[in-house]
């Protein structure tokens, strides 16, 4: 009824191939952007920023990054935590070595260094596939964590091996270190998330994205029709690692402020982000956001409802929460193996026909 | 969009906050995860002491104490969530019992002006109150602990450690790495050979580490462990036949649950402690006023154990600081800034500990503007597997201030320079 293409006439190819061809969808997208940029910053407080929005946005960036590699290019990776660590440590080294450098440049620098490291660890993907590649990236995960623990240069020889983000600002507003306003912290993550998501969406619609998907669907066929697997796979690793590196840099500098590599970027982080894209939907930008929201917000929501409202003991809640989240993951995947993005797609199809399904 | 609905529901859940006017002592505990074995008794002791204050004394200076609990699972992200969730409640002091969470909270508490007390963990150089205005780590920190171990070993070995081989087996994290600079400085000073062996968290797998220890045959193994790592290390030491009385844990590696899984094989294992663990009169009060009334945070079985005592000690120091603040300001309803002043003027004397029903539980110390670290003294205790009891071996041993003071000075100066902090207290 309200969600339909009837009467929505396109007069140019450009209009026809836009991301949101249906008017209602487009306005909803603008509404979300307006809400995120013009409403949330004015009402957000420390709790909402630090516990909900900032981790959600950062995990969404990481999930988009991994989705490019796994969902679009079909190269299974378990090295996400290690690559996030590269982003965080590169950002930290840039921040401390060049105190005058803008934090945005440091974060982008963290992304670029991670892209280089990602390409390096992506080289085996030219020879090995599937589970075997997962094992090779798993090696990257363990090697990188070990490296950042072992070599004191990376953590500037601090006594504890922790890295702590010094105070840095954007346009005179502090975004890292002590004294950060909740909305500033939120805005920097939001800007990165929106720009990167927009870039990812358009990359995956273009030549590069199509060559990734060709490799994913059948690499030999793709090679025969002229897709260069070396270029396609390595660009996927580079772009994916760039995203993950930025997520790692934000995670360290903006979100936590201090990290130790084994605790923050261990193997469990790799799995967490992989689960996000599996639950959200492989090969979907919206799915990356949905998956991140599901795995970041749901535990916090459950905790607040069970402890805050129902007054359960905290340990019982922590255990029950694991069971509920686990059961929901299984439930969702049985109901829709292609993730939340597919549910969303089906929902939209249904809406299109509603209220006259036949 | 589905993603926007969850926060709305959350908002409703959060709006139901309780009324103010209590003294709020949030407890960031961990009763789940690989470190729960240590987190549970500590949290029980911490909460039970506040309950005792409410039940026996009618609160602190007449105002009831409230202890909202938040589960961190020793995870830094959850720790931040817990901090943000509880700080708006009028929180007076944070004791996260995690070095990792401490590092994240240091900049936050400096900005939010809430005191952070990291008793025997956290950032060691926070002992320098000139730089760390809102962070306290009295009565002792890791570098004190490392120095006390070496001092004890010197006494054992006739005053010299020349040519001895000492191995540090440590949790490969910020926590485990903290003592390394001190031990390295001490190894230069006293001429012993130091070997560092890391164990990756959580530490269930230590075969290769103990193989290395077996090969190198160190004279002493010092352990900086926590959680499941301790039990495994003691079991592995028993497996290779390492003499237990040459195996010394720090104060987080010396509780009942660390040694009991190895049974009789753990007999003679030593550990530091910052509290003497004996049957204090206050435990009887806790049993009557808290456990028997069904108000205990846990099931009451932990009363009197090593970590329960330490949790209770942490709560006692917080209560005494609050009382000091109440006396200083003349108002019972103190806020976080007054609490900080109270902590800075805290004086623990033997008479005060006697009056509280816990004579000699900790060292005597006093806190000042420049010194947030206390005396740094600790005892060495030994496990008697037959009686299932920790036996104090020594009196409180003072650390080597000559070595530690310059290290604290250097590390805090680096932090001050990094963050543009001007030293205070002059």
UniProtKB/TrEMBL annotation, chain A:
CDD domains in alphabetical order: TM_PBP1_LivM_like
Transmembrane feature ranges: 27-44, 50-69, 76-95, 101-123, 130-148, 183-200, 236-259, 271-298, 318-335
UniProt keyword list: Cell membrane, Membrane, Transmembrane, Transmembrane helix
Family matches, as InterPro entries: ABC_transp_permease (IPR001851), LivM-like (IPR043428)
Keyword Cell membrane applies: yes
Pfam families associated with the record: BPD_transp_2 (PF02653)
Domain of life: Bacteria
Subcellular location: Cell membrane
Any one cellular-component term (Gene Ontology): plasma membrane
Membrane-topology annotation of the record: Multi-pass membrane protein
UniProt-recorded Gene Ontology molecular function terms: branched-chain amino acid transmembrane transporter activity
Protein name listed in UniProt: Amino acid/amide ABC transporter membrane protein 2 (HAAT family)
Automatic annotation (TrEMBL), chain B:
SUPFAM superfamilies in UniProt: Periplasmic binding protein-like I
Signal peptide: 1-21
Domain Leucine-binding protein: 28-386
Family annotation (InterPro entries): Leu-bd (IPR028081), Peripla_BP_I (IPR028082)
Keywords tagged on the record: Signal
Family in the record: Belongs to the leucine-binding protein family.
Name the record gives this protein: ABC transporter substrate-binding protein
Source organism of this protein record: Rhodovulum visakhapatnamense
